[in-house]
Amino acid sequence: MTREDILEAAAQVFRQKGYHGASMEDIARAVNLQKPSLYHHVSSKQDILLALLNRALELLLERLSPISSQDIPADKKLQQMIRVYLQILAENTDLSSVLLFEHRSLERKQHARHVPHRDKFEALWRDVVEEGVASTLFVCDDPALATRAILGVLNWTITWYHPDGALEIDEIADRYSTLLLNGLCR
Fold first, then answer.
1. Of 68, 77, 95, 107, which one has the fewest beta carbons inside 10 Å?
2. pTM over the 0.85 mark
3. How far out from the chain centre does Cα 172 lie?
4. What count of other Cβ atoms lies within 10 Å of the Cβ of residue 34?
5. Structural domains in the chain?
6. Running DSSP on this structure, what letter comes out for residue 105?
């Protein structure tokens, strides 16, 4: 049994029961350990949550940073980032659910440790929007608000997306890109 196995199981338990509904006993049972043995690998449920949030953001930054630093127009960067982000969310549903829905369960100390990672992730997107504004490709009075709106649309997708549904995740990404970049007006 490794720490990675425990974190993977914990993400699944948190997605199914929610952070507050899950217990250390539930996590121990998910990896066939006795609860005291679990504490040899992790110190607390809060530390597990923080580790999962960090893992999710590291994965996202690892995959999205190279896109954001490409020497291509901002709209193309944004399209690629949308596609990759949705792919990551769809491929990692347990971890994604923890990132998007359980971060509010962090206690003050862990929250303070999480915020810089979250801000770095958000800054990737905001920088691309600002780049598009600076190049006059985008018209946007408030890049920070636009960034949060984009992320809100993308994040909510995991609440309704199903792999067996009518649209593949890449089709959803393409349609979102069209909507976000072209708007609803003719």
1. 107
2. yes
3. 17
4. 10
5. 46-182 (1.10.357.10)
6. G
